[in-house]
Write a structure and sequence with these properties.
The protein has 101 residues and is mostly helical. It has helices spanning 4-14, 19-24, 30-41, 53-68, 70-75, 80-98.
């Protein structure tokens, strides 16, 4: 699989005013969150596939980052329950994609 398009999409969400940049500022957008879940869910990694280091970095960091931002989202008046569900959904997608030890 060619991961370059997915890497570009995820990188753009970390750029200024991207989804993850807005999360960092406590601004959770449930509609954009669904887009992120779709991007993640579209990643298909075969058992013997090698992944680019940049994609690994973008994926492994997500659960920790999203957990750290929970209070910030709540402080800014965000829907804590919806955000918590989103973080669980991300974790579930990553587990399905990458497996567990």
């Amino acid at each position: 699989m060619d991961y370059s398009g997915i890497i570009e999409q995820l990188d753009s969400e970390w750029d200024t005013d991207g989804f993850f940049d807005r999360i960092r500022n406590g601004d959770y957008d449930a509609k954009q969150a669904q887009k992120i879940l779709q991007i993640l869910d579209a990643i298909d990694i075969g058992m013997d596939d090698l992944m680019p280091k940049r994609l690994v970095a973008l994926l492994w960091y997500l659960p920790s980052f999203l957990g750290w931002q929970s209070d910030r989202v709540a402080e800014r008046g965000g829907d804590r329950t919806a955000y918590a569900k989103f973080t669980v959904d991300v974790q579930n997608i990553l587990e399905k994609m990458l497996g567990t030890p």
